[in-house]
Amino acid sequence: MNQDINVGEVRTNCYRQSKVPGEFMLQLRVPGGVIPVKYLDLASKIATTWGDGNFHIGTRMTLDFPGIKYENIPAVNKYLKDYIEGVETGLCDVDMETVAGEPADWNSETGYPTIGARNIASCIGNVHCICGNIDTAALARKIEPIIFPSNYHIKVNIAGCPNDCVKAHMADFGIIGCAKIDFHPERCIGCGACVRACKKGATRVLEAGPNGMPLKDACCCVGCGECVRACPTGAWSRNPKKFYRVILGGRTGRQTPRTGKMFLNWADEDVILGMFGNWQKFSAWALDYKPVYLHGGHLIDRAGYQKFKELILDGVKLNPECMVAEQIFWHETEYRSNFNVKYPEDHLKAGPGQN
Which residue has the higher pLDDT, 346 or 45? Predict the structure, then answer.
């Protein structure tokens, strides 16, 4: 059936175009990668009623449903009402009736109002993982209402510890949970387990001192907590206060993939949320208040690091431990075609029917 389809409009509604004409893939947001299991029934209904019977766990931890016909999108959007209200409004306290602070023409039966920002990806964090320093899903749900819905695009990955299983170094903003580690010398038996663990799996900042008591080069500690895990007597413990490292400007892509660089270290949660609170303002400024589909790392490049830092930290009160990068330089690999290659004249002759 021939149809006139505004692909851009459908994409804004969180549907991705298929190579099969007239078919799309719905992307359900799962902020932080965790949702109540009751929504699996909803996923089954979408896949079997309107999709092709499958769903894909997207690279950004969305639940993706391929095979949805264009004419069925309104029915799917209407069915999403309970999910959007339960996850976005209920779990994340998102105001779905505004976009970037401005009133939006939206109701709960029209699906998602924007495709930006992208779903916040995270590892399982300290609710399960023995390495985790932070509750990643809880942080994702606090960031979600700040950056979504939006006409500006940003990718955020949250890692529970410096192992960075979720690849925070490859996102516009990567958040990594890091712990200040407290030492309790009265519990130490000088066994050296912490020194060995740091040497093998961390940054080698510990060495054995007198009587086996560990000595620490605190300036290079990444707050991973390997010493805490290794100690048999609890001589090392994570400080209850949560700290975060922010990795900036990482990305994949065909042309200029790169690993992000450290922007903030030992920031507290208020700094993280305040930073994201300025994202809409920075994006609008960088794009001259004309939203286009361009991700955060490219906007940072366009503005320059110093201007980005000025706008993203505007009004943000830094906690005493927080460190900010004075300058960041990214290395880009550039390619240039050899336009001086000479070809035989026969190769340049016009083919049949050509002038």
Answer: 45
